[in-house]
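Narrative of accomplishments. A recurring question from our advisory board has been how the design workflow behaves on a single, concrete structure rather than in aggregate. To address it, we present the structure tokens for one chain from the evaluation set, followed by the sequence designed for it. No filtering or post-editing was applied between the two.
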């Protein structure tokens, strides 16, 4: 008899929240005013106005509203989710700039960011890792503030994980690709397993990146925003904020344009006056707004230090049917002790993307369709040392640059090799990297040799975790906001999104962004 694989290794990155009834996690979709409410213009008063309804804005709104503040949130995207299992539809309605943002530098890097009431949580895979303690402890040292340490943040992670229903994915709906990654990593004794996800009502349909068709994912519009609304917070959607209002050297509100979501017609101007302004438009949207307005130059290094967690993928061919587009989206992961900051996790994509990834186009399409059901795979994500920057065009679109660090490229290659090792341990017959000139390989050694001389421009990379562009710090020369989230050089202006991260995180950022937003919301409320 064969020896069973060892049990999963306990991993502090992957913790479940205390269980709550599903009805206390997934609420009816939060009410939000759409374009009709702003026809002819709209003016509002609040204690706090928040720009953006993603994880940073929603969590701050909940904390502030619970403390008794009158909160108004403005959202560029639609008031209600508009989901179809179609990438073009998702890009149009729920991705910033129609999913067309690309950073240029020593390679081309598409970068995704969400929009709509709920922000990126509407269309992400719901992975809910906790940041490593060494990252958070480094933040606490940098900020000279123990409130950002791993120990101090743990209760916030516990609270949010419970509210959004974080659970390790269960095997019954995981899908075969996730199961194979668990099988391979356990066979090699590596930490990992089925991943922590905020999907307490998951049915394993594999459509998270288009939006959840069964409302099984605790996206912000179904979880934290309804809690904020219950305490009086209100939302105006379809509104693109163009200006932070500044009077007497303080931020005192925002001005934006409400646009018809289908025609782009200007419906009316929206002005919200509030003594506290919180920008939560994301690590691209927030600096883009400040640069387009012309305010960024006065606030420090706005838009500098962009990190993105660039990723590539390794696909595998098995004897059995895998159907990697079925099951929990990105529902498994592993780590390697020799590769800190490298996080391989399941590759989930619709069939047409899988075919493109293996080059099955033109005359190769027929062969690709034959292989398609037997494909599995894994994304290899790197906590990057490389950096980029965010600016704005004259039309207000994002102008992005990014320069890959040579060390990041080498760690990507090593991560891909170890991922291939895991996939072979799970029974793969061959593997391929999404890298020009690499091709299929039937051994780890052959795959490693093929990757050795590949340059960054040979890699097909993708990123969906922009961070650190308006980072927290003590020094106004090297940071934009302090440990309380308030801008060093503009009282009344706060930032609560992944742009405030002092460094690259190393894990999928949604849970940490919610913890950060909660901490900042509590501090803003206490400041009076």
């Amino acid at each position: 008899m064969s020896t069973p694989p060892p049990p999963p290794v306990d991993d502090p990155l992957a913790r479940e929240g205390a269980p709550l009834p599903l009805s206390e996690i997934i609420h009816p979709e939060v009410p939000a005013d759409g374009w009709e409410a702003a026809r002819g213009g709209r003016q509002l008063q609040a204690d706090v106005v928040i720009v953006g309804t993603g994880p940073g804005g929603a969590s701050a709104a909940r904390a502030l509203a619970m403390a008794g503040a009158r909160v108004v949130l403005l959202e560029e995207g639609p008031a209600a989710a508009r989901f179809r299992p179609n990438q073009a539809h998702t890009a149009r309605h729920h991705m910033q700039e129609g999913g067309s943002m690309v950073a240029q530098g020593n390679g081309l890097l598409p970068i995704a960011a969400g929009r709509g009431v709920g922000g990126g949580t509407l269309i992400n895979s719901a992975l809910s890792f906790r940041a490593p303690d060494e990252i958070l402890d480094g933040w606490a040292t940098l900020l000279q503030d123990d409130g950002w340490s791993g120990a101090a943040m743990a209760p916030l992670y516990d609270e949010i994980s419970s509210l959004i229903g974080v659970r390790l994915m269960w095997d019954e709906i995981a899908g075969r690709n996730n199961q194979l990654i668990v099988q391979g990593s356990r066979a090699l004794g590596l930490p990992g397993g089925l991943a922590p996800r905020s999907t307490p009502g998951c049915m394993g349909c594999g459509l998270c990146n288009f939006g959840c068709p069964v409302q099984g994912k605790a996206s912000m519009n179904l979880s934290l925003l309804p809690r904020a609304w219950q305490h009086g917070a209100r939302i105006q959607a379809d509104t693109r904020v163009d200006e932070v209002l500044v009077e007497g050297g303080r931020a005192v509100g925002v001005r934006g344009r409400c646009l018809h979501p289908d025609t782009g017609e200007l419906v009316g101007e929206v002005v919200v006056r509030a003594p506290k302004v919180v920008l939560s438009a994301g690590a691209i949207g927030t600096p883009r707004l400040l640069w387009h307005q012309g305010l960024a130059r006065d606030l420090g290094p706005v838009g500098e230090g962009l990190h993105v967690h660039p990723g590539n993928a390794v696909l595998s061919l098995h004897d059995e049917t895998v159907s990697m587009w079925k099951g929990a989206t990105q529902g498994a992961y592993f780590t390697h002790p020799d590769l800190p900051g490298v996080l391989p996790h399941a590759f989930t994509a619709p069939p047409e993307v899988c075919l493109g990834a293996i080059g099955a186009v033109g005359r190769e399409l027929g062969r690709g369709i034959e292989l398609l059901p037997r494909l599995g795979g894994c994304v290899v994500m790197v906590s990057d040392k490389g950096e980029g920057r965010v600016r704005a065009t004259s039309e207000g679109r994002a102008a992005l640059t990014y320069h890959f660090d040579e060390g990041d490229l080498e760690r990507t290659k090593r991560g891909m090799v170890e991922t291939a090792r895991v996939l072979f341990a799970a029974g793969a017959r061959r593997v391929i990297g999404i890298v020009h000139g690499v091709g299929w390989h039937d051994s780890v050694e052959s795959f490693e040799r093929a990757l050795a001389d590949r340059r960054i421009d040979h890699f097909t990379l993708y990123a969906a975790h922009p961070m650190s562009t308006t980072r927290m710090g003590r020094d106004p020369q090297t940071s934009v906001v302090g440990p309380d989230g308030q801008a060093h050089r503009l009282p009344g202006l706060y930032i609560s999104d992944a742009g405030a991260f002092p460094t690259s995180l190393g894990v999928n950022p949604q849970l940490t962004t919610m913890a950060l937003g909660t901490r900042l919301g509590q501090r803003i409320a206490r400041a009076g």
